[in-house]
Task: inverse folding
């Protein structure tokens, strides 16, 4: 079992930055691929970024490449999402998710993840 709690969301102006954190409980965190997804009202859940359990592999959604960066600190059981150059279209609820242990490449679809946090709201004003 892995429990996830996101934090760091808020209101920011376009062009600004935020860093989201996802704190995990459970002994298996360091072996799990981790992902960030987002969902805006009336839209499907969208892949944002993912990182393998080792940190060796990272993937990004096309809409955030070059602006967002995912990282993890296994000693702190935490995964981060650094978001720069934010745009109004980045407004959404952001969720972190934990995947199955020791998978070499992190997934990019929601159905590839087993545990989800409650989400944190990010609002970017124009």
Result:
């Amino acid at each position: 079992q892995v429990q996830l709690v996101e934090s760091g969301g808020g209101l920011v102006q376009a062009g600004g930055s935020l860093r989201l954190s996802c704190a995990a409980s459970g002994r298996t965190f360091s072996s799990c691929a981790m992902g960030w997804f987002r969902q805006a009202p009336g839209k499907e859940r969208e892949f944002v970024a993912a990182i393998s359990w080792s940190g060796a592999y990272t993937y990004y959604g096309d809409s955030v490449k070059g602006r967002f960066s995912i990282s993890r600190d296994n000693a702190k059981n935490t995964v981060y999402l650094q978001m720069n150059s934010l745009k109004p279209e980045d407004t959404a609820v952001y969720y972190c998710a934990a995947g199955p242990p020791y998978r070499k490449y992190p997934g990019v679809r929601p159905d590839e993840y087993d545990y989800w946090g409650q989400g944190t709201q990010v609002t970017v004003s124009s």
